[in-house]
Amino acid sequence: MDKYEKVIELAKRRGFLWNSFELYGGAAGFYDYGPLGSTLKRRIEQIWRDLYVIHEGFMEIETPTIGIEDVFVASGHVGGFSDPLCECKKCGEAFRADHLVDNIVEVADALSNTELDTIIKDNDIKCPECGGDLGDAYEFNLMFQTAIGPGGGRPGYMRPETAQGMFVNFQRLLKFYRDKLPFGVTQIGKSYRNEISPRQGVIRLREFTQAEAEIFIDPRDKTHPNIERFADTPLNLYSQEGQERGTVEQITIGDALKQGIIAHEFLAYHIALTNHFLQRVGISPEHLRFRQHKKDEMAHYAIDCWDAEIETDRFGWIEVVGIADRTDFDLNAHAKTSKTELSVYIEYDEPKMVTSFVVKPNMGKLGPIFKGKAKVIADALKAMTQEELEHDEIKVVMDGEEFVVPSDLVEFAEETVKVSGENIVPHVIEPSFGIDRILYCTMEHAFNEEMVKAQEGKDEENGNEPEEESRVVFKLKSEVAPVQVAVLPLITKSELITPAKDIVALIRNRGLLVSYDDSGTIGRRYRRNDEIGTPYSITIDYESLDDKSVTIRDRDSMSQVRAPIKDIENVIYSLVYEGKKFRTAGTLVQ
Amino acid sequence: MDKYEKVIELAKRRGFLWNSFELYGGAAGFYDYGPLGSTLKRRIEQIWRDLYVIHEGFMEIETPTIGIEDVFVASGHVGGFSDPLCECKKCGEAFRADHLVDNIVEVADALSNTELDTIIKDNDIKCPECGGDLGDAYEFNLMFQTAIGPGGGRPGYMRPETAQGMFVNFQRLLKFYRDKLPFGVTQIGKSYRNEISPRQGVIRLREFTQAEAEIFIDPRDKTHPNIERFADTPLNLYSQEGQERGTVEQITIGDALKQGIIAHEFLAYHIALTNHFLQRVGISPEHLRFRQHKKDEMAHYAIDCWDAEIETDRFGWIEVVGIADRTDFDLNAHAKTSKTELSVYIEYDEPKMVTSFVVKPNMGKLGPIFKGKAKVIADALKAMTQEELEHDEIKVVMDGEEFVVPSDLVEFAEETVKVSGENIVPHVIEPSFGIDRILYCTMEHAFNEEMVKAQEGKDEENGNEPEEESRVVFKLKSEVAPVQVAVLPLITKSELITPAKDIVALIRNRGLLVSYDDSGTIGRRYRRNDEIGTPYSITIDYESLDDKSVTIRDRDSMSQVRAPIKDIENVIYSLVYEGKKFRTAGTLVQ
Questions:
Q1: How far A75 CA lies from chain B's nearest CA (Å)?
Q2: Residues B439-497: tens digit of each pLDDT
Q3: Is domain B82-141 classified as CATH 3.30.40.230?
Q4: What ranges do the domains of chain B cover?
Q5: Model confidence over A7-42: pLDDT tens digits?
Q6: B82-141 and B454-577: same fold?
Q7: Cβ atoms within 10 Å of A383's Cβ, excluding its own
């Protein structure tokens, strides 16, 4: 078993992840989050909200997962959100054409369908399922399509990203933020991608959760007011140059900016914030790097783009976050399709005097002469230059027809006016997180098998050297662990069960997720909780009835402290959320 | 403007609710939650989680919003989740046929399509849009359909409820809860309903959020261990009998159980818990009632079903929660379709001796005689009665063919065996919450227009009697208010801005959502915060620089206290979350 298999086996057995629709044979690309997985996911999202919504002040919005066609025409998804599909002529199985050749060429996903066909033919690639001949590659759109309303309705699509719901609300958001840049907005929710043939378990899902921020900034000022916060933060950067050399470099944000590796401060700040988030949820820094998009891989409109990549045992380095400067691309695209100006009026510090050439056709005189055409002729005149207008008879040509306008029907002059500001299309910085992949990596990095003294919790006073046994332990950060504390009466007798349940109630009222377990030996119960990552276990024994104290066990060190029942809920809360050191939670039990 | 219009106007203007896709002309049945609406929604969901997940211990799971066909064939949605649709022959507009006749008959939604056609014809009902003739009513399935995978793929549906994702995981969940009843599981997420013609704004959405719990209980024991908690809770019950009389009765849970109005304790407990939740998020109890489903409206399999209904200004009483005893219907439906046993093995307190008639065909002798048919003949023998078997030659008839089996090839006898338990299909108690409607009602019930002294916050020492002015105030419970505290420097000068921003940082670090506002008079800023329901505002004035204190203003009473800056974040936290009384937060400012 590789580590992926071990993690998934545990995840399925203990209620983190389940194959969806298993009762009916399942469906590739869909996973259920069981009780523990769903709770872990909520906690990861909560940390994201704490950083982005509470601390950065990027308010969260929630827009529908079903979208109408116009939105995705503008965004380019109707036209271009596709993968090359190749079907077996014999068995009909469908494959990603680029995946069929990715051990032959280096950047398979940059090839055209014709190039893919040629490589498949030249290398005599056959259907991996049945050996049959493969058909030509064609583009398969990855949006799930549906219809809104009866009678075929209007076309609807399951959104491929949460981002568009924020772009189309630009005007509303700008008003909410009182017409001032920069401002940010976030969304956490489901997105969909109708993968041709998903074969990587939880790494490639057809329905997944994104957490995205769209930050609208003044294109003329890409500094960040808090960049100092991260100036000395070291990151593993895998820059364009580094990729050519094949080396990842550890460098501080400040130095990366000085050396021009990262385009600007605003992007650098968000790379650093992503790094902070990933480490806070439990990604180990030595398996985390930031890879810059190469020039030929970056979208044509983007200024700079970095992916956070995490190293996994089976899949190698996988992309979990993208952080891009998307410029004004998205707003312009929606402005064009919706025929609406999407910009911000920015006042100058000082008004400017601007000289321009102004044409004023006399509508009162044009009207009687040109009747229905007067308006379009006037518009044509307004667009003419001084040279074209300086004639006694001005010639206007429209659709092949020529109109002659006497010069006394048009006034024109250079005018100087005071302009106090201008409309600017903001640029967008977009950090986009794949929550499901981050969750999986959190589990993989927390997964440990280790040798420990056997029979923990049992009486060891028989003098024998304790034997060793292996334990599986999910060393999840206590802030993300699904079950935050387990309460265990030492033996299943009512005189211990009753006070144990009272402690459960106390801790629940503090808003913590607590489990109660009285079945099996105490050692077995510790192991069960180790396996699901419960950071602390409280044991109630007969002594507790006298000294009104309990034992708290720390999952990672397996050491124990004795602490009073009174205030136990606040002690646990501080351990979980406030970084309280375990050794300060009570008197160390030797 | 009626109250709905007033609430929606405010909701749109201030960023609670927006029509989706407005930039492209919108689409009926879809709403966006803006920054404040989304935050309000998160807080309502958080309270639900606190009650159901943390306190009841019903762990949350997360299953896909796209489902495969088998699931919805089993659940009955493919066959029966539809509304009667009626199209205009002239303009093609589609209508709910039952809505067209609902001012003519009393229970329009109970009519068959033929009955609807007759009523439409007899009453000469025409198209409400163009006056044209209406076509016959037919059933329109309300699930959004899509296809999973390429080449037409397999049919997929956007789930119409979150419940099925929990039912199909029954076996996994049972194992998670160590094979013991009762246990509960919850899910909060999107559900979809492709409404024919949604015309009630946020009340009838095509994409909406549900919070559902499925609680699996032993059908032989529907008592609830904590029923005493709610025994004295008074509820407005609109029972089957009450509906006949047309009266809502205020009665305690305990009395409702004694009088047999509610079927059993377990259901009663969950009606009371629903009541507790709705009041905690801010629904006013005088506009809340529980309506029992009438016999002809209840699903045939249900034992008892109650809807929580909230009174609204425009729509009258609307259903926001359903609480039902669905018996073993859902598990049986999935067991049948998936051919899998979905039950719990329950051990008896004492093993029972059970006598049964057992037939043992001698396969070693049957085989050589009947060859390929030996197995089916043996099965047929096993199903026979003692009378049928007590012959020298036993006749077995299968598919018209007769087989004669000599009696010495079959042994049979009554046997008594010890049985220590049995398999039981649990019953399901399902509280199902419509979060969007609850959110709207929370806003409507919190919406207030009132007359207050004019010029609040201005210097009133000029001796004039203050005039009155009206203010709009969202009296949201502080636990659900999106912005929890506003920080306002009295005037926009850096010596006040700097300490104000320090306070913002302090409060953010306590995990609270704080806004900073320095534009306009202090009175206008108070009004702005009243309008979005911010429960507390902190004002920093010149005195603050000397006495290191600030003024906290209470939204509802508009009274103010003076409190030290040190510890201000904990004071606000206690006010918002821990029920601290405002008067105890500092020294009252007269």
A1: 13
A2: 999 999 999 999 888 766 454 455 566 678 889 999 999 999 999 999 999 999 999 99
A3: yes
A4: 3-75+147-329+429-436, 82-141, 353-422, 454-577
A5: 999 999 999 999 999 999 999 999 999 999 999 999
A6: no
A7: 9
8 Å CB contact of A172 and B15:
yes
C-alpha to C-alpha distance for A118 and A284, rounded to whole angstroms: 42
The Cα–Cα gap between A404 and B503 comes to 70
Task: Give me the residues paired with residue B82 across strands.
Answer: B141
Q: Which residue from A21, A62, A192 is facing B32, i.e. has the nearest CB? A: A62
CATH of B3-75+147-329+429-436, one of 3.40.50.720, 3.30.70.20, 3.40.50.300, 3.30.930.10: 3.30.930.10
Q: How far is A411 from chain B (nearest CA, A)?
A: 38
What residues of chain A lie within 8 A of the CB of B153, using their CB? Answer: 194
- The question of ipTM being above 0.85 is answered as yes
Give the nearest partner residue to B176 out of A35, A146, A194, using CB atoms.
A35
pLDDT, tens digit (0-9, with 9 covering 90-100), for A294-314:
988 888 889 999 999 999 999
SS3 content of chain A, % helix, strand, coil (to 5): 35, 30, 35
- Per-residue pLDDT of B228-247, as tens digits, reads 999 999 999 999 999 999 99
DSSP A150-178: STT-EEEEE-S-SHHHHHTTHHHHHHHTT
pLDDT of residue B465: 63
pLDDT average, residue stretch B160-182: 97
Determine the CATH number of domain B454-577: 3.40.50.800
For the A353-422 domain, the top CATH level (class) is: alpha beta
Interface test with A, best of B61, B87, B180, B515 (most A CBs within 10 A): B61
CA distance A455 to chain B (A): 23
CB contact under 8 A, B22 and A172: yes
Looking at residue B346, its pLDDT comes to 92
Q: Are B20 and B37 in contact (CB under 8 A)?
A: no
Under 8 Å CB-to-CB from A415, ≥6 apart: which residues?
Answer: A355, A356, A357, A358
Contact yes or no for A338 and B24 at CB 8 A: yes
Residue A335: CA count within 13 A, CB half-sphere? 14
Tokens found for residue A76: 């380019």
State the smallest CA–CA distance between residue A583 and chain B in angstroms: 24
Considering only CB atoms, B340 lies closest to which of A23, A60, A140, namely: A23
Residue pairs spanning A and B at CB distance below 8 A? 222
pLDDT band for A529, please (50, 70, 90 cuts). Answer: very high
